[in-house]
Specification:
Blueprint (H helix, E strand, L loop, with lengths): L2 H31 L10 E5 L4 E5 L1 E2 L2 E2 L7 H12 L6
Antiparallel strand pairs: 1-2, 3-4
Length: 89
Amino acid sequence: MTEDDSGVVDRLARGAGRRYAEAVAAYREGRTSGELPRDDAGRVRIVCRRHAEKRAVALDDGTPACFDADHPACEGCLEDVRDGQVETW
């Protein structure tokens, strides 16, 4: 490989690295900017994993009011609510 070829490869690699960093930043921004849907009273609309039903619940510092710390389905739901990725209706 000549020096000219090496320079081209370096420039392409740097450009790809910049585009990758921009894509990662856009992905993170998109994940944090979304909000969970709410009803008219301001409660978050979720599908309860524990009872397999649709419900609207208030959030207290990101924790659903129906949260039960001793139930594994509630633990998973809490993580998803905080990530903004819980199943909604």
